[in-house]
């Protein structure tokens, strides 16, 4: 008979796997399922085990069977068999759309089922404005979307759509601020004379060693 501790560990492992596969962070899932983030994190860490109704919520959210997140998983090969090429955007060619081939700086192979829904690309981070959250030269997975929630990190076009930057979005008294996580950089205030356009939400990053 499986112990309560082992049951929590199995659930934790499966939940972490589906979060990674779908490109979700705990804050997203907690908000979308109306579950306290602290509660969700206790399941992720294996500290606690959810009630049956919450297990079903998670199964429906990830579009899997309930047993897929409650039982030990031993074979990853089927889910990771198909690889897709995700383009890396290094620099933006003047006047070209963000996903024009002129802007591509190679590709990263990703398991198809590990990617979130929607159109995605990698953006190569330049500089230290988002450190320590995002290191310089890391590849950040971006999902194309025109808006994000307050406090989320987005890829934003600035300087007449000729430069793309990663910044945390803050909405304050009707004003949009692009905020660096590195405190030595002042916020960028979006105005008519200082425009900016959100092109996607940052989901995760990877760093080559």
Describe this structure in words.
This protein is α+β, with helices and mostly antiparallel strands and about 210 residues long. The chain has 2 domains: about 5-70, Orthogonal Bundle (434 Repressor (Amino-terminal Domain)); about 85-205, Umud Fragment, subunit A. Helices cover about 25% and strands about 30% of the residues. The chain has 5 helices and 9 strands, in the order αααααβββββββββ. It has helices spanning about 5-20, 25-35, 35-45, 50-60, 65-70, and strands spanning about 85-90, 105-110, 120-125, 140-145, 155-160, 165-170, 175-180, 190, 195-205. A 9-stranded mixed sheet has the order 2-1-3-4-9-5-6-7-8, with no helix packed on it. The model has no long low-confidence stretch (mean pLDDT about 85).
What's the helix and strand layout?
Blueprint: H1 4-22, H2 26-33, H3 37-44, H4 52-62, H5 66-70, E1 83-89, E2 104-111, E3 120-124, E4 139-144, E5 153-158, E6 163-172, E7 175-179, E8 188-189, E9 197-206
Parallel strand pairs: 1-3
Antiparallel strand pairs: 1-2, 3-4, 4-9, 5-6, 5-9, 6-7, 7-8
């Amino acid at each position: 008979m499986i112990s309560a501790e082992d049951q929590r560990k199995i659930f934790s492992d499966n939940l972490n796997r589906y979060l990674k596969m779908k490109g979700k962070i705990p804050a997203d899932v907690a908000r979308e399922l109306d579950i306290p983030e602290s509660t969700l994190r206790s399941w992720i860490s294996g500290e606690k085990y959810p009630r049956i109704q919450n297990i079903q919520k998670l199964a429906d959210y990830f579009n899997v069977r309930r047993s897929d997140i409650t039982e030990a998983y031993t074979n990853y090969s089927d889910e990771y068999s198909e690889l897709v090429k995700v383009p890396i955007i290094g620099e933006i060619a003047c006047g070209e759309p963000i996903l024009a081939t002129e802007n591509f700086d190679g590709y990263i192979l990703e398991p198809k089922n590990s990617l979130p829904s929607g159109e995605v690309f990698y953006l190569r981070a330049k500089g230290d404005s988002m450190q320590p959250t995002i290191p310089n030269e890391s590849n950040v997975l971006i999902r194309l979307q025109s808006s994000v929630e307050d406090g989320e990190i987005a890829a934003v076009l600035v300087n007449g759509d000729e430069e793309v930057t990663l910044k945390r979005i803050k909405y304050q008294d009707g004003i949009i601020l692009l905020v660096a996580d590195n405190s030595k950089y002042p916020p960028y205030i979006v105005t008519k004379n200082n425009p900016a356009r959100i092109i996607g939400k940052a989901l995760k990053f990877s760093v080559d060693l």
